[in-house]
Design goal:
Protein-Tyrosine Phosphatase, Chain A, UDP-N-acetylmuramoyl-L-alanine:D-glutamate ligase, single chain, mitochondrion inner membrane, membrane, Mur_ligase_C_dom_sf, alpha/beta, ligase, tetrahydrofolylpolyglutamate synthase activity, 2 domains, 4-stranded mixed β-sheet
Length: about 550
Amino acid sequence: TYKAQSNSLFSPALSSRWRCCVVISESAHAQYEVIMNVFQDAVCTLNTLQTNASALEQVKRERGHPQLQLQAMRGFLQRAGLKVSASQGSTCAFTEQILRNYGFRTGFYSSPHLVQVRERIRINGQPIGKELFTKYFWQVYCRLEETKDAHGGSMPAYFRFLTILAFHIFLQEKVDLAVFEVGIGGAYDCTNIIRRPWVCGISSLGIDHTSILGDTIEKIAWQKGGIFKPGVPAFTVKQSDGPKMVLQERAEEIGCSLSVCPDLEEYQSEDSLRLGLAGHHQRSNASLALQLSHTWLQRHFLTGLFVPQIPPAPAFQPSPAMIKGLAETEWPGRNQTLKHGPVTYFLDGAHTTRSMQACVHWFNEIAPQHERNAGGPVVRVLLFNATGERDCGAMLKLLVPCLFDFAVFCPNITEAIATCNADQQNFNVSVENMLTRCLDNQQSWRVLNGQEEKPEAELLIGGGLPLVAERHRDTLVFPCILSALQWISQGRDSVLSDPNKCVIPVKPSINAKAALLREAVNIHVLITGSLHLVGGALKHLDPALNS
């Protein structure tokens, strides 16, 4: 039970209503309810720091002085009482897993989260617990809240706050090392305030966030190279000539060595290296992770013996811990397969044309393997959404050759009900804009498949979010992820048939379109276009992620 000293879990600056909640509890259940209430209040408070649409426009206008953002970040860290003197996506996951296999206590910061915000901050590979998240959240938030009046009322935005929180947690939890995935770009990203990291890495570059990073791969490379630090070894994978030259120039300008990682096949191993993550593109990420972890181990144990200027990264013989780390790496929502009886879900958070090419390559390799074992007709379904300024048409064009029987579109709303999990809430875009984007994507799909240009839409659900379906059987737009998954699975997925889940009624005419889904031996669903879409789907498909 909580006793008086349990107040040490929370900052004394918390509102009185929460301090009153932390008292001696009658039972473990009541204690759990207290933790959950305060945790949910923390997440809801965190959501108030999300940048709204008008503020986002202001941020874009202020991009002419991006260095001010790093100055602001240093100011927030100082106000939070932090001093920090301490890589990308699946590469970070490989790196963290390898070094954890050596017995080090690891911290891992990444974005975005799929189901719960706690996933962004991990200790030894596991999301920070709800109790610790709540404790450290209020410690940081209250320090910033108490000092905001002296700083023009400023509070850090959502991602910046979480970055500060990650630094605080890793320092308080005394990790041996922390792996940080850069948010957007590099040069002016709020993670880029560490003056002397042990090692830096840049994975394969693609076109993304063009309004912020620039509209060419060379401009994006310049931003990415901003994470380089004087005298700190840097690694990258094989890049095309343009960005490769920019990265080399950035390394020379900043004063660090830059090495290109060898192909994974060049590493000396008795057997071919097995990866825990599917997809051919993960091989370059794995090679980069080997170089990052190998360099950290060298510098950690041989400090003072490191020579800054090194030749191109050589292949070496991976240790058993490295081999084990590559094989055991898990990164939900990236080239992930979930089989629920007759329904198989292929989930990948690809959201750029480059990553979508890799997703299509992976799907075209793995889906036929499952279809050969089906023993009957298989229906292919695409569930797609994309956000921001991304080129949806280009991504959809890459997906057309996959020959889907149905293309389903929905916004990144987990459920069309008021009790939607706070972890999944996004206040940066309106529901109307999200649904309009879905209709635009549906129209693009029709054009790409040679169908009519302007079909009529029918609103099927009154008194709330609309369920929009077109007269063609092959394309539909749903108001939320749950309603889309329920229609696709047609009651054949026991996880989605949970009586506790709300079932959104659909008109008989729309259910009639699903005859093919009901008659097929198997249903194969590719969910892609957005990590937020994949995360919302996993919230329903993998209940363990909600615990």
